[in-house]
Predict the 3D structure of the following.
Amino acid sequence: MTKLTRRSFSALTLAAGAAAAFPARAADPLKVGFIYVGPVGDFGWSYQHDQGRLAIEQELGDRVKTSFVESVPEGADADRVITQLARSGHKLIFTTSFGYMEPTNKVAKNFPDVMFEHATGYMRADNVATYAARFYEGRYVAGILAGRLSKTNKIGYIGSIPIPEVIRGINAFTHSARKINPAIEVTPIWVNEWYNPGKEADAAKALIDQGADIILQHTDSPAPVQTAEERGVLCVGQASNMERFGPTAHMTAIVDHWAPYYVERTKAVLDGTWTSGDVWGGFNSGMVEMSPYNKNLPEAVVAEAKAAEQAIHDGKLHPFSGPIKNQAGEVAIADGATAPDGELLGMNWYVEGVNGKVPG
Amino acid sequence: MIALERRPNSSRLWLYATPVLAVFLTVLSGAVLFSLLGFNAIEALTAYFISPLRDSYGLGELTIKATPLAIIAIGLAIGFRANVWNIGAEGQLTLGAITGGGLALLFYGAEGPWLPPLMLIGGMVGGAAWAAIPAFLRTRFNANEILVSLMLTYVAGLLLSYLVTGPWKDPMGFGFPRTRMFGDEALLPTLFAGSRMHIGFPIALVTVAAAWFLIARSFIGFQIKVVGLTPPAAGYAGFSNAWIIWATLLTSGALAGLAGAIEVAGPIGQLTPSISPGYGFTAIIVAFLGRLHPLGILFAALLMALSYIGGESAQIELGLPLAVTGVFQGMLLFFLLASDVLVHYRIKLRPAREGV
């Protein structure tokens, strides 16, 4: 029989406590940490995650304490910052960019009693859950606006990093726009960063110079919206309602709404019911929303967009229901079929109507 | 009235005292800044400068962050002393990461203890090859090495991006742009349990010692100095300008490449589209902060690393904005450059002249 030394006893209680002790220690607020890839003031992706953090504070008050580190580069630095959060007593840590995937999982191995939530990745563990939103549903709705409103039939699309999430967005948008207007062509420019207002604005200018009269972006700053406003073309905001940066150009934005998920997951940790898992929420979960449509848009177009929103919400319409052709003109998703999630998650080909090649 | 009087010789005392003075003034103004922002200055400075150093884990992190800065800055300083301005260390770092990391992928599944040293050498070759382009263009066509090396940084970034989204993409990675994780034996060994500190820091220390020897004790170090100070004298002495350009660019490129290989074989463990958070550019600041002296550079790299890590702990512990890190680094440089005046001038108090 093993002797129960004081040391092994405390290790035992610690291990047991990790799972169940939170309600017992209700006096100590739960520390929740966030790491952002851009500045909180990007008015896009990171800003929207920070709104979720604030919602946790508002909803759960004294029971939680939150902190965040902003503009953390994806790579060796992320590893350190996540570790610092875990070491300073944060028991729930949200890592909110794809490039934090390996660092999150590496650190999670060393801190089995800390719960991690990684946005938009695919690596999970007992203490690492993943979550993402079906932004492509919003892209599909944006495609309707573009299909109806483009006069030059040329759309510019500012890509960030060529991961399936971004390619999926380009495809959902292009497919939707071409269902309405088969002459539409979409040209992506990759800036290879999530947040770089200068590069984003340059890309927008280049696309407009090539004749694009609508600009889409999968980057996080409002710079493309400002450029669109200056140059008198239309655009769709990213992650957050960017209307104030382009009151006439901004048709709508695909808004990420993390607050309900963040509050729910924090409550789960407080209640000791947190388990790892994967959530991929769309319109119907409230994770994705279209911001109010610009009042200058034709009513009929707005009505059509809203109808599509509702249909996707109700599960009557799937953005990737066939027939969908790839760039070579071959049917990639058959008539009557819809692409399963597994295929969407690894999507690395363009649909017909997108110019250029998937990088690589 | 206060006047500045030019010293006949620059002051050695102030040459070494000004960095200390600059740090002191930065801390002092930092305290004022924190108070004005409504934070407790002592708490904020503690979070900034002390918390990251409290335990072996923190010290390990400091060395991880300082290692690439020191190694790159050492190489750059050798060139800067000869008036050869390699601004593209970031690109040479990227190339070193590609060649070093490429070896890890090439020998995936067949690793051995011989692989990490090979990767580091591969990184140096890659970095040096990238720096050879500006060296060739400068010596052959007199093309400005500042522009050429800087522009090649973007080319290197795109090359990395192409490789990780294309031929080197992880086959099991669901189409995401990154290579597979390197095998365990392709990674640099860590020095202590419970810390990420790896063999890269000792390598940086060796680099510092070697650079000191090169600069202070070797003939080529002397040539570099002469070429940098008085090019005509170097010409009369028969020193080849082209040879110095080649030697300094290849050395700084090789060291930047080494840093890149260390990053991927150390803390990262794979190739991703973003390897460096701008080490190649920050190293330029580090080189000057360290007065182009190897030992000074080592201290400057540690200080710069501390300012990043401290900025993070200040964000976590006190919710201080990230911008404070930038302001801090800016103040440090400002005070250093401003106090430089003391090296070349002395302050004289003179009675004010009347009636003028």
Q: What stands out?
A: Residues 33 and 67 of chain A are 5 Å apart (CA to CA).
